[in-house]
Structures are given as C-alpha cells and as structure tokens.
Queue: 3 jobs
Job 1
Amino acid sequence: MESLLLKNCGIVVTQNSDRKILKNIDVLIEEGKIKEIGKNISQNADEVLDCSKKLVMPALFNAHTHASMVLMRGYRDDQELHAWLSDVWKVEAKLKPKHIYAGALFACMEMAKTGTCCFVDMYFEMEEVAKAVSEIGMKAFLGYGMIDLFNEEKREREIKRTKKFIESVRGKYQGIEPVLAPHAIYTCSKELLEWVNEFAKERNLLKTIHLSETRKEVFDCIKEHGVRPVEYLEKLGFLDENTVIFHGSWVSKREIEILSKYGTKAVHCPASNMKLATGGAFPMREYLQAGVNVCIGTDGACSNNSLDMFREMKFCALLQKWYRWNGIELTAQQTLDLATVNPAKCFGLNSGSIEPGKEADLALIDLEHYSMKPLLNPVSNLVYSATGNCVRDLLVAGNFVVRDGKLANAKEEKIVEVFEKAVEDLFK
C-alpha cells in the first residue's frame, strides 16, 4: 500500500518537540512515512481509514527483552534470584532452534498486539528470531548473547557465532539490525569485551550489555577489579555513544556522570527488577539530570511475565514515585518519552513521534475502551490506565502489522499451535 489516510483522528498524541496533542485531525501516510498532518486533507489515498474513535500515537519501543523466554512464562516464579537463574538455565540447555523460533514468533505476536513496533533482543539462535520478526513485520535490534565464562576456547566459538549471525542478518531483512551483545561482565572475559569493542568500531555496530543489575555484581567487580562495573568498562575503553547498558540500577552518581560523559545509554526494566527483587530502585532522577538517554524495556517474559509496554510504563512511573516519596517524581509525559522519543533517538530510528517526514510507526488506540474514559488527559490514560488490550491497529513503516486487533501478516492460530507444542516439548 503506497498511501493511507487516517481520517478525522479523534486524538493524535504527536510526541513532537512541543508534545502537542491534536484533535479531529487527518494524518496522511505515503510510502511508509508521514506526509501531512492537518484538517480535511483531500488527497486521494489508496485507503482511507475512519479514526474518529481512535487515538493515534507513536508505537512503543521495548528496549530490552529476551523474546523467546516467553516459553518459560510462569516457570519458577516467586523464587530468590540465583535459585531462579539456576532453574532457568536448566531449561535453556534444552532449547533447540525450533523452540527459539516458536517462542520468538509468539512474543512478537504479543508485542505487536500490545502496540510495540520494535524491540531489542539478546538470546541464542538469533537467526530464528530474525525470521520470526520478519514474518510478523516488526522492527528489531538483535544480538547473539555472548558468554565465554573466561574460557579461551569458548570465547573463540562465541566470536565465530556472532560473526556468522551478523553476516546472515545484516542487510537481509528490512527493519532488522544486528547488534553486539556480550551478556555481562561476570560472564564475559576482558578479552571478549575488548574484541567486542574493536569489532563494533570496525563494523559500526551498537553494543548492548547487562550491567550493575545486582549488588552482588557490584561487590564482585570491586573485589575482582578494584573498581565498580561502570568504571571497569571505562578502563577497558568500552563506553561510548554506541553502547547501551541494561538495568543499571546499582550505580553511583560518579558512574552516572561517566555514562553521561561518553554518551552511553541506559535501559530500565522496572517490572523484572521488582519481581526478581534485585534490590534498590533505578536512580531515574540522577540519570535524567545527568542527561543520559534512558529507555524502558520489559526484560524477558520469564522474569516479567508480560511483554506489554503499557504496563511497563505504569510500573516505571509508580516505582519512581514510591521510591522518592514524591507524587510528581516522574510524570506521565516523561514516562511516555521513555518508550517513544528516547529509544528512537537511542537506536537511530526516524520515528518515535508523529511529524511529517517521520516513519509511520503508529499505534491506534480504541477510544471506546473503558480504560480510555473519561479522556481528561490522554497521556495520563495511556500511562496509568491503558493496557495493550486498548490497541486496535499497529502500523510499522506505514504497513499494517495488526489490524482490527488481529495480526495482518500471520495466522495467530498457527502461531499458538506451534508455541504450545514447543512448550510441551520443553517441559514434558
């Protein structure tokens, strides 16, 4: 479809620089991009969609997850972190490419149907994840999770696997970009991190890594290297504007200043961190005051149990208010930014807001849904009362990925059937 006219949109949450909210307005999309926003656009489009009972907003961006872990949703809940990890690793040891594919396809379905257009993923057999993303029609930044456990032979295998994945994906799929994804400083050797750093510069790739997620990680790093985790990566020359850290809750003010100095980005996963009781709360105020670009993500559905970014926005805002004893600590508008404009800037996407020239990555929300009434403050409704159940349509680069609540490019019944067989095979 070359052109689409969203006619008489009830509400448009633009997320532009002025954060304007428009009413009863038309949005014209041509060749995947927003061409015009205005009243009574008379352009002859290939399709005209009545949006009088819909809210149009930038689609959401899940900045950190492990999509295929949806296979383990509900497995070993209500456990202490390290006991939980031990059990999860036993299941992961049985994962085959067919399981990864089935899980990724199901996760993409859940994310798309709840308004997410793009996600950042770290896992194994990532060629299977790329295939699933492409079939659904989403965007993604995918990284093979590198773990060498300080073993030289394993390190060489991880490097070969990473190179193979990047060669198999880069330029092959529209909307999918490979990233480098060393798992963490406690599972990756100094030599592996140095290789990642050099290879990233050579190939102009983003680097993603779990960092400072738990107090134990911090204390172990100090014991092993004499410095805190952020300082350790700085010593390695690892930090730069192409680096994204996941979690980053256990950081000092000095470490935040270091991240800001290098233009490094941070991704907060509130629900997962609270559920696993990793301790403390993400120091959002300090990050934002330092000018660090902060995004939010769900983490995997095994530690969150949901991939719904609407729920994640609410958790994010409430955690900060609770942590600071301050009802205005993180506003609904600031929180919406963390899932739209911030990740678009972080990952170099020409979207995240509704403006002429931007790619049409849009979520269309049902204004008749009970959680959207009354509509005294649209942004407040989106962050505090809405869930992904409100989403009726999802456009990615102007193409329907979800239409009238159903996937546009794949049969949901088949996805569920394959997924359930994969779960049965893993847990039989």
Job 2
Amino acid sequence: MKTPPDVFELRLDHLIGLLDELEKKVSILRTPLLITARHPSEGGANRLSSQRRRELLLRFLPYARYVDVELRSVKSSGLCSNKRAEKNSSIISFHNLKETPNVRTLKAKTRAVRAVGRQQL
C-alpha cells in the first residue's frame, strides 16, 4: 500500500481458520492495530463462546494498540484484570443490528460505559 490506513481492524471472529498465519504476519504491520472478536448477537461470526473470544483477544493483545469489546462482554473478556491490556486503548461498543435504539436506551448504554470506565477497563 502506498498510503496505509490509519488503523487496521482485525475481526478475529472472522479469521478463525487463519490465526497461525495471521499471527506470523501481523507484526510487520506499520499501522496501529485494533482487535475485536464480536459476540454473535452483535454480528460476530462463527458463534464463538465468551471464553473463545477472550482467548482470541488475549492471543493478539501483544500486537494491538486498541481493543474493541462489546459492553455486554466487558466482564467476560477478562481484560479488566489483565495487566497486559493496560498498554492498550479500549473501545467499548454496542451494536443493535435490527434497529436504531431510542434515546433512552442510548443514554442507558452511555451510563453503563461510563461505569465500566470508572472500573478502569
């Protein structure tokens, strides 16, 4: 690429069959890396369990600058108590793939994200 993107996002839930190859190649990227492994209810592929998504995030954590975890998965991700995650910036996301949530729901999600932030994800 002549001009690389600002960030590469790796959707680990979509890359299950390529993990070993991906891990060998990811270190050559000169652009910050964002990793995520989506919950099936929020568009995640391969119907991965919380434990499997956590394993994927922890495996690729050393290569990442950013980690995107859904609000619903913050506790099960194990990143709150993981010392290796401290060097990463965290993105806490929420996805409703069926409709745009109403303002009340969005405000509630915002409050929940702020509460997680106070717990120092």
Job 3
Amino acid sequence: MTKHRFQPDHYYTTLGGHVPVLHVRPGDTIVTTTLDSRGNDAHGVCFSQGPNPQTGPFYIEGAEPGDTLIVHFDRLAPEPGHRLQ
C-alpha cells in the first residue's frame, strides 16, 4: 500500500468528464487538501470560482463501472488557523 501526497493545482465544480489527477490502487492512502465551498484556501486566497470546488478526480486501478467504492477518512480537519463560519 502506497501513501500519496497530492497537492492540487486546479479544482473542478462539475462531476465527470475530467482526466484523473492521480492513479491509485485499492488500499492506498491519499493525503491532500481542498478549498472551502467558496473556493478559498486556508489563507483566504480564492483559487476557484463557483460553488463547492472539488479535489480530484482520482482513478482507482481495477475499479469497474458498477463497483461500490468504500472510502475511509482517517483524518478530516480544517487547516490550522482557518475560521469556521
């Protein structure tokens, strides 16, 4: 199992039709960040227009259409110093 550290350089506000940003295998771990719902990073800098920017997509090796994916969040936390509103 591999631990991937992924730093996004762009975000999408739509589902589907995007080239995967990272290929992973079942059991791998992804450590990454994302933006808030307005497109701002932890420092308040706007990186994306539109609602709810998303990190990814990630390609799961061996996954087939119709498969069910199970995702475990080991840790989910706001960036240090980020104000919850």
